[in-house]
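Annex B, item 7. Sequence and structure tokens for protein A, then protein B.
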Amino acid sequence: MKVLIEGPFYRVEQTEDGIIKTTGWGSPTAEQIGEYCARHRAMLKPIAPARSLMDASKIGDLSMSARWRFAQELKKNRTLVSRSAVYGLSPQLQTIMRILIRASGRTDLRGFPSESAALAWLRERD
């Protein structure tokens, strides 16, 4: 995989078939998340619409303000991403994410129990 951007709590890579994979770790602050999202958005613009994969298995406990900031920043990426898959969430967060996605009516964002399941969905044709 080709590394596109890196930071103190993340690495963004591109797979051979063009999927953008983000691996996060630690417990970044709301400010750090904002900085990451700005870099990520700038990286996505030339290749949009991208298929996005997020490995959340090593992300620590985020503050409510950090979670809120991340949710707000993700809204800004909707036109840059055709599909987004997340795996590695705790069972509690996986349930919350599923409820929120269902309530929003979104079909371009899903949570998965494994990387292989997430990749299979991202590789499906619309």
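Protein B:
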Amino acid sequence: MFIPEIYDGYAFEKAVLGVSSTEICGEVKDFFKSDINRRCRYSHFIKAVQVVKDIQAKIGNWNPDEPATEIARALLESVKINLKNRRENLKFYTSVGTLLDYKYGADCFFILTDKNCEAIVTIDLTISRTKRRSKADIVLTADDLRDDRRYHKIMQQIADSLVRKVIKNRKRSKYLDKRRNYR
């Protein structure tokens, strides 16, 4: 995959996601400065994800089924290939400049839905060659996108993580249903 030599994190976000946290449109910036956002600033992760899902169209006209950039489309397709039979339920969201980015370190994320269970894998985009730890589930560097072997390994890691989380969430859901039935 062609990735130009990038020395700025904002430029890397722009290359991958088509928008950087410094360029988010006025409506989104206003939302995140609003009184509503102040109240949910310390909100739960799932609520932060829901807010991002609700404002996708305002973040660079992003479509989770058909991402805005060639790199993002390649990421989505690579993970879909690794998912095999669950690929139609995969979506890819951008969260740059949102609460999910600032609080949870997620510049973007994948959501896999399977039988009323959702699994989310967050990604931190970075230009740092040495960064391997993050609040996000996966750290993705420009070097990872340039090196085919590392790229495919990370795409497989994302797919595996999504499947594991779906299975775990399905088991948790069944357990909670059983507990409700006993009451």
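Comment on protein B: The helical segments are 9-17, 26-33, 35-40, 45-54, 70-83, 99-104, 142-146, 148-182.
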